[in-house]
Amino acid sequence: MKDLTTYYELSQEQIEFYEKNRFIKLKNVFDAETLEFYNKIISEQVEKMNTVTSKVEERDTYGKAFLQLFNLWRENETVKEFVFSKRLAKIAADLMQVEGVRMYHDQALFKEGGGGITPWHADQYYWPLSSDKTITAWIPLQAVALEMGPLEFSAGSHKIVEGRDLKIGDDSEKLIGEKLRVTDFEHVIEPFDLGEISFHSGWVFHRAGANVTDQVRKVMTVIYMDKNMILQKPTNKNQEVDWHTWCPGANIGEVIDTPLNPVLY
User: Which residue in 135, 119, 113, 108 sits closest to 219, CA to CA?
Assistant: First the structure.
């Protein structure tokens, strides 16, 4: 698939938009043929790896938000082709204005029909990483209407420190939401066209609405970090778990360079 390897050229205006807002949505990153092919492969892999058997309404807020499967690239060579896309990795490097990026981990986020909200949160609460040079590619495998729960952003909210110590849940939705309502940061809620993907930084606050349709909102994500990222001493139990799960063998105070964290660009 040529879309995986050809470069997507960003304008200076797009790079500056990301620098200011710490998120950006980019149209026509992948064509319909590419997405149709990998939608099928990724969906089959999610079905194979998924162990959740309870009904949506029986789960807690986090469980209702999505089915979450990690590091599909280690389980399926075709998924690995997609996750290791030079096209995606170069966009990540260009937006963060770094020389190169390496993998933190991938994850599939499939919000089932009838699935609940994804509460307000900042991803980097979970990550034992020493700088904010982190970015997540959020890649819908189909067009996402508002009714399906597309990702929403509080533009520029990476400047807010309050709320960074909250894990995803009812408290983060309430407390971060209240804080954002009394600020001037724009709340961006938009559908995603087919082939449109977003990139957001580790500290920008974001959420997603409920999926009120009978279709699954299928999204693949890849989390990148500066290739020179240093492992910091974990500041909470979730970061401790992330260290040993996604960066096994990495040492505090040193560059994260393990078999699970290859340089992708």
Answer: 108
